[in-house]
Design a protein that fits this description.
Radius of gyration: 25 Å
Number of domains: 3
Strand content: 5-15%
Shape: globular
Oligomer: single chain
Number of helices: 20
């Protein structure tokens, strides 16, 4: 099985309202030898305001954000999807990728009318090296060096952990450089903590993870909290009836006899206590199940003895009614999220109909005038909005003048001001203020770059204000 290591650099830290500016990926063979490399950048989208702080971290200059020679975001996404598909099937790997990079990539594909589940469909599986490093530190720390942060705890930041273990990361926060740093750490885990590596490989798909937890009466579940690995001896309760990828587990420090005696109201209160009696695992997010001989003695519940743990697990697995009541108690305490009014946050709002999927394929094959026509034929309102936005970004000249003016005004209003009630995106006012504040403490060698961003943001703010008030431009 091949591996695809990847990383993204972005305009900011919000997964819904920032964009990918740089993508880097490396294809390796099963022995982690480099086979192929791919890198691409895009210019800034018209409705995205970049964070000056993020630009300093990644080293992106103003001219790169607006360079007409760079691909558009849409062109970049189509190329990324094409390359990753050609490298598949593979295990897709990043560093803190499941929490950030993959969500950014999915939203980039979503906004470009491309399949969003590329990393875990079509024979692909996925893996995140950050949890492996945390687990290695907890269960097999020998052989690696662990840098310490300002709080005296082990630091798992890529730009600190990789150099501490012999990797030249002088160009940290460049996407391709971060990919090679991730490969370096993956090789170290495989060499110095083979049990952790093998455990990750064994359960990197939803089907493999589901099969394991079904077969095991009790097992070690590793929860990651604030950079720490918290292992617990648990047994499977069952799958969330509303989410087939979510498994509920019971901490076996809990006495099944006492749980079975609780009334519904008492049980609902009990599942909220800490440490949580019931936890959930995402079976499709490469959960880590280290073997008993490695993690068992360090796992919560081990102090009861394995015979007692096995007895409790058997009792829970035999009591279907108790398992259902525990799951219902947890699910009933959850507050449903209202649907967001913003297209960016509607990514998981349901699958497209076969008819809309056909039109998506036609959209990608067509030229821009035909794409504008197709945009009005989608049944799913998300697709209508996304496709028309693409037409405006890529070929506004094919739009009627009134439609172009509406888009220009809407974008100017969005980036010029915002209240917490209507979104989380960065506004021009906020970005200008951020840049001015940073100038007071920025290192001298970064001052020129920051002033360039401040000048461009200030000019952009003036332009947006004129678009909002057409009379002022006359």
């Amino acid at each position: 099985m091949a591996f695809i290591f990847y990383d993204v650099e972005t305009s900011g830290a919000d997964r819904s309202f920032d964009q990918v500016l740089q993508f880097g990926a490396v294809l390796t063979d099963d022995d982690l030898n480099v086979v192929d490399t791919f890198e691409i950048r895009s210019r800034l989208l018209p409705h995205i305001v970049p964070s000056p702080g993020a630009m300093l971290v990644t080293g992106v200059r103003v001219e790169q954000l607006f360079d007409p020679a760079l691909p558009s975001h849409f062109e970049m996404c189509r190329r990324i999807h094409e390359v990753m598909s050609s490298w598949s099937p593979a295990t897709v790997i990043g560093y803190n990728s499941l929490a950030f990079d993959e969500e950014m990539l999915r939203r980039a594909f979503y906004s470009s009318l491309l399949p969003i589940y590329l990393t875990n469909t079509g024979g692909n599986s996925r893996l995140d090296i950050l949890p492996l490093m945390i687990a290695t530190h907890a269960f097999a720390p020998d052989g690696l060096r662990w840098p310490v942060n300002e709080k005296g705890r082990a630091s798992f930041k890529l730009d600190r952990l990789a150099p501490a273990n012999g990797f030249d990361h002088s160009d940290a926060h460049d996407a391709l450089a971060d990919v090679h740093a991730t490969i370096h750490l993956a090789r170290l885990v495989r060499a110095h903590a083979p049990v952790i590596w093998q455990s990750a490989m064994a359960y990197r798909t939803k089907a493999l993870a589901a099969e394991y937890v079904e077969d095991q009466l009790a097992f070690v579940a590793t929860l990651l909290r604030f950079g720490r690995c918290v292992p617990s001896l648990v047994t499977a309760l069952g799958i969330n009836p509303e989410n087939s990828s979510e498994l509920f587990t019971l901490d076996l420090r809990q006495d099944p006899v006492l749980l079975a005696a609780m009334a519904a109201e008492e049980l609902s209160l009990h599942v909220k206590t800490k440490p949580r009696p019931v936890s959930s695992l995402k079976l499709n997010a490469c959960p880590l199940f280290p073997p008993f001989e490695v993690a068992g003695p360090k796992a919560a519940g081990y102090e009861f003895g394995l015979d007692e743990i096995a007895r409790r697990a058997e009792q829970v697995r035999a009591d279907e009614g108790l398992r259902k009541r525990l799951i219902e108690a947890v699910v009933s305490t959850r507050t449903p999220f209202p649907e967001s009014p913003h297209l960016e946050e509607q990514i998981y709002g349901g699958f497209y109909s076969p008819g809309d999927q056909y039109l998506i394929n036609e959209f990608h094959r067509a030229e821009w005038p035909q794409r504008l026509s197709i945009s009005g034929q989608f049944d799913d309102r998300r697709l209508r909005g996304l496709s028309r936005r693409l037409v405006y970004f890529e070929a506004p000249h094919v739009m009627p003048a009134a439609m172009r003016a509406d888009f220009a005004h809407a974008i100017a209003a969005r980036i010029h001001s915002r209240t917490e009630a209507i979104g989380r995106w960065t506004t021009l006012d906020e970005a200008v203020e951020e840049a001015r504040t940073m100038l007071a403490n920025v290192p001298a060698h970064r001052e020129v770059m920051l002033n360039e961003h401040l000048a461009r943001l200030s000019a952009w703010r003036e332009e947006a204000g004129l678009t909002l008030d057409p009379q002022a431009a006359q």
